[in-house]
Amino acid sequence: MPETAQHWYFNKRPKDVIEEDTLILRSEPIPELKDGEFLLRSVYMSLDATNRVWLSDWDTYMDPLPIGARMLGFIVGEVVKSRHAGFAEGTLAVGLTTWSDYVVTTGEGFVPFPKPEGISLADAFGVLAVAGPTAYVGLLEIGKPKAGDTLVVTAAAGAVGALVGQIGKIAGCRKVVGIAGSDTKCRWLVDDLGFDAAINYNKEDILDGLRRECPDGIDVHFENVGGEALDAGLTLMNNFGRVVICGLISTYNSSEPVPGPYMFRNVIMKRLTIEGFVILDYAARFPEYHEKLVGWMRDGKLKYRLHVAEGLESAQDALRLLYTGGNNGKLMVRIGAAPN
Amino acid sequence: MPETAQHWYFNKRPKDVIEEDTLILRSEPIPELKDGEFLLRSVYMSLDATNRVWLSDWDTYMDPLPIGARMLGFIVGEVVKSRHAGFAEGTLAVGLTTWSDYVVTTGEGFVPFPKPEGISLADAFGVLAVAGPTAYVGLLEIGKPKAGDTLVVTAAAGAVGALVGQIGKIAGCRKVVGIAGSDTKCRWLVDDLGFDAAINYNKEDILDGLRRECPDGIDVHFENVGGEALDAGLTLMNNFGRVVICGLISTYNSSEPVPGPYMFRNVIMKRLTIEGFVILDYAARFPEYHEKLVGWMRDGKLKYRLHVAEGLESAQDALRLLYTGGNNGKLMVRIGAAPN
């Protein structure tokens, strides 16, 4: 058992992109456990676009992270010492906690993580911790696609987007069109994941591409990015269409508010519903989502790709990949070895 | 019976504001009635912000009005000659028709208008033809306020806004705050209509005003205008709030798309639902809305003010009042005398 732990601290509020000194890594002694606490050894950490939101000083769905606090993220780890009745030594726990290799916690924000049989911890965590429930809720409960619908997904090769497209096919969408940033990503969506078409926004105008691929208009638009893609989607929405706002990553690096979609008037003209959500609100229903997602994973209906950065020290650099499209699949950090 | 009728024709597509020669008035012989037609003598015409939308060449909820076509509007009139089984001579009919003092029609788009007992035709038409159903559907079916909610209404002294605020109080909203453009309008909202507060956007910053008047945040925001007011509302929305987009009059005079709300990110941060609607979609349910609205009118629970421009020739100038805030109450044109 080590005597010190590594923690990432919030050092300097970024004006736009995350910089070298936005977060800093520090070593600290691991304190003694008190009653009701346990020591978690971190194994995998999820990196999500919304992590950047927590570093802003906007009014968001969480209190802004104060300078000097430890950075937060979703982590799965092993309970290596416990004085907590709900978390036994040797079990796995998942939760929103600090970017640390070892952390002492009261268990607040944690739940046990019963790894499903026959699925690796990396796969289980990568799909089930954040991205899978996000895709499930966003598409099925908010987007509510009907059989025969045309679904458009932005950041389609990202962790959430890739799952959304596949769940869309499971739900009976006639046409699922993804928007991604490279031909390689686009080929992966169509050839491996079963998307009906994919548009490379670095090679063609998104609106032109959507016009070609969605001749019957768009019924459900699943937005992870914002900006040009959202405007293109709004332009082509069918009457009474639904726009799911899962992420607006194109705006998170801006200290100042940025203009909303220029085609906002189509909310009236096309009688649209635009709805945003935060997956944290749905935590109580995760077991239900996990059951569905694990079933699809086992049936080979949900494919995914993990992009695993090595070591806690790589976390800050890795997070920036989400903002350059540099990641290939679900971005996570391997902080420690997975238990047997 | 006159031999000629006056009609407003669409002459020149406006780039921004409606100009002197956007529409032109022409005199034409009244044709003979064919079987299945009737001749309507127009009495009142409703002027609505959305009329301007029909003059744009955007992709909207209706086909753009072609240059050279007669201008369209909601009119109530008297059937003065009929060869139509559904519309007897001497009865009243209401519908989306041309800006004309007399018009021959097949009845498409018309329904009989049974004037409620004890309510003048001007009042009945002013409230029931467009504004009342719009306020009813937008607030109760889309905004879905709960008892105790805080409701904000923009263009609150306008035809729809004034009704929305009062229906909000009927629905049990704890606090109804209106935004309007003069102290006189604000006083009318609070003193006569029962709004809890009103903000004069020409005298103070809307966001400052809303912060003061909505200390518990906003649960339902009813938008008729767009722009600064919408951004202020989005800034102060409570989690899971509902934003009803009834109109975006601040954008209708622009040929080019204008930026959407700068606080659009709050769709996620506050988990909002933004929903637009067009009252034409609800035509089949008007009898149901009329029954409710007439009940409230008779009980004195719905107050309103009519701004009646005199004569068909005043219609174009009158329409422009909606875009300067120059109207005082529901804007309509008296084209001919009301029948006894």
Describe this protein with a few key phrases:
homodimer, alpha/beta, Quinone Oxidoreductase, Chain A, domain 1, Rossmann fold, seven-stranded mixed sheet, 10 helices, 15 strands
Give me a quick take on this structure:
The structure is a homodimer of 340-residue chains. Chain A has 340 residues and is an alpha/beta fold.
Oligomer: homodimer
Count of distinct strands of chain A: 15
Quick one: overall form of chain A?
A: globular
Report, as a whole number of angstroms, the end-to-end distance of chain A.
17 Å
Protein architecture, described:
2 copies of one chain form a homodimer. Chain A is of the alpha/beta class and 340 residues long. Chain A folds into 2 domains: 4-114 and 305-334, Alpha-Beta Complex (Quinone Oxidoreductase, Chain A, domain 1), CATH 3.90.180.10; 131-280, Rossmann fold (3-Layer(aba) Sandwich), CATH 3.40.50.720. In chain A, 26% of the residues lie in helices and 27% in strands. Chain A contains 10 helices and 15 strands. Chain A has helices spanning 50-53, 121-128, 131-143, 159-170, 183-192, 206-213, 228-236, 266-269, 286-298, 315-321; strands at 4-10, 23-29, 38-46, 72-82, 92-98, 102-105, 110-112, 150-153, 175-180, 197-200, 218-223, 237-245, 273-276, 306-310, 330-334. In chain A, the strands form 3 sheets. In chain A, strands 3, 4, 5, 6, 7, 14 and 15 form a 7-stranded mixed β-sheet that branches. In chain A, strands 10-9-8-11-12-13 form a 6-stranded parallel β-sheet, sandwiched between helices. A two-stranded antiparallel sheet of chain A has the order 1-2. In chain A, helix 7 links the parallel strand 11 (218-223) and strand 12. In chain A, helix 3 crosses helix 4 and helix 6 (206-213) packs parallel to helix 7. Chain A starts with a strand and ends in a 6-residue tail after the last strand. The A-B interface holds A 53, 58-61, 226, 235, 239, 245-248, 251, 257-278, 281 and B 53, 58-61, 226, 235, 239, 245-248, 251, 257-278, 281. Strand 13 (273-276) of chain A pairs antiparallel with strand 13 (273-276) of chain B, so a sheet runs across the interface.
